[in-house]
Amino acid sequence: MSSLIGGIYPPTLDDGVERDQLVQTIKDWTIANGLAVRPPPAFADGEFEGALAISAPVTLFPSPFPKACFEEARAIQTKYNELYARISQDEEYLGSLVQEVAGGDDFIANLWKVHLRVKEEGYVQNLSLGLFRSDYMVHQDGDNLQIKQVEFNTIASSFGGLSTQTSLLHKHLAKTEYPLLKEPVSLPPADLPPNPSAEGLAAGLAAAFHAYGKSALGHQTCVLFLVQDEERNVFDQRHLEYALRSSGAEPIPVFRLPFSQILTHTTIPPSSPGRQLLYHPPQNPARTFEVAVVYLRAGYGPADYPSQSAWEARYQIERSAAIACPSVLTQLAGMKKVQQVLATPEAVTSGPGALRRFVPDSDGDATYQALWKTFANIYPLDTSPAGLEARRLATDPEECKRFVMKPQREGGGNNFYRTAIPRRLSEIPESHWGSYILMELITPPPLVNTILRNGKLEHGGVICELGIYGTCLWDQKTGAVLRNEESGYLLRTKGDQSEEGGVAAGYGCMDSCRLV
Ligand code: ADP
Ligand code: MG
Ligand code: MG
């Protein structure tokens, strides 16, 4: 990709004042503007009692990203939003995929049980909100650069708050610092695209809040963020909260509640057929708010469900009248298994594939083809002919090096790469292999950048992953789509020796795009 830029980029900095000056500016800007995270517990437990923040890991320069790929990913987001809204509505189809993985995956089985319990008594809320993020890497095949989807997130899609700030940081440096370097860098504003991710995600939450309407019980309505107890990425969430609070003429009340305290601070009045979710703020339990929207930044993995009462808490949210972001069905639509069946060619399914099911001909072939182009090869590990072939590849000591194997999990750190795949498979019963999928590794073009993490610089080859946010509000019963927007982007960058790329999981860092 360096051929697209010309010259050496990013420039080499001298080891002395030049580098220190840039680093100091970044350290100050990040804290001054909330591009920050809480420090790890070892630091946080000291004498500062929760008053510490540290700069989020960032690149010194925005990484080059092909403009055509960036535009393609943005342009397709509303189609992806609609696709996943439709999948969420197809309970029967989702149920069949859940059955395929549930045998080896209690977590997915338990989520499905929550849905079935609520289905039995009947859902009282038909509206569903998705704050999605579709993640891609640029796949290089000779001279051809094409975005390939890494995954589609339907729950707790994070970094929309920090991402806006990262774009602003790099814009600031482009004005103040880069032109002063010994090898000056000139980045015209048009090469640094605007990134309204915080505002866009907040607008999605606001749309659901307003669609909920007034409380039939006469309470003030609110938005409830469900969060993890020891969340370090709290400022990312706060940026969304602050944007949401100030998004309209009327202030929207927003509360944060640890997932573990749902049953302590929320109730559903037994006498009310509307099953309104009531929130009682811990600081003043005499006050009652009615929850219009529940935004989950927790509950996406087994660690948030240490006991049956946590599952009861999720059930309470799901059966309530609050608009869930996401509902259980929408969360399940984000299973890697779903992505795998969408990406399975019709030659293999010998009949209309999953993508056809959700993108009917009436949508036009262009939509189908545009989505199809973004899929990498993904295989089941079941006992179908395609699955058996994938099992052969996954257990072959050479072939396995082309793949990553994924369970139905979120949040980073769960995958098995290359030669770890046969090792992992040998540890689990064959009857559970079907709860994983096998995906070809995407090979992005080589890039170089410097990451500033915990005050230290890491220079070397990097790999970038682009996420496009989407916000979608729809009616599960009628299929009507009330909102469907592309909502900004995330660029995450990791060292090219690291397999995983999650910023929160400690592997990646925040970045922004220099379009080339
Ligand atoms: P999670 O839901 O845990 O984030 P992902 O599917 O995003 O799971 O995988 C985690 C990370 O693994 C990605 O951010 C990316 O760095 C790497 N990864 C996943 N799939 C691929 C792939 N097909 N090719 C290359 N890297 C991948
Ligand atoms: Mg994910
Ligand atoms: Mg991911």
Explain what you see.
Belongs to the eukaryotic GSH synthase family. Its EC number is 6.3.2.3. ATP binds at residues 151, 336, 406-415, 417, 439-442, 465, 494, 500. Pfam families: GSH_synth_ATP, GSH_synthase. The protein starts with a helix and ends with a strand. The chain has 19 helices and 21 strands. 46% of the residues are buried. Strands 3, 5, 6, 17, 18, 19 and 20 form a 7-stranded antiparallel sheet that branches. Strands 7, 8, 9, 10, 11 and 12 form a 6-stranded mixed sheet that branches. With 516 residues, it is α+β, with helices and mostly antiparallel strands. Helix 7 packs across helix 12 (308-319). The chain has helices at residues 2-5, 17-32, 41-44, 67-75, 77-89, 91-102, 106-121, 160-176, 197-212, 234-245, 262-265, 308-319, 328-333, 336-343, 346-349, 354-358, 365-373, 385-395, 420-427; strands at residues 36-37, 54-55, 58-59, 63-65, 127-141, 144-153, 220-227, 254-258, 266-267, 278-279, 289-296, 323-325, 378-380, 403-406, 416-417, 437-440, 447-453, 456-475, 481-495, 508-511, 513-515. Strand 11, helix 12 (308-319) and strand 12 (323-325) form a beta-alpha-beta unit. It has one domain (17-376, 442-515). Bound molecules: adenosine-5'-diphosphate and magnesium ion (2 copies). One magnesium ion (MG) is lined by residues 135, 151.
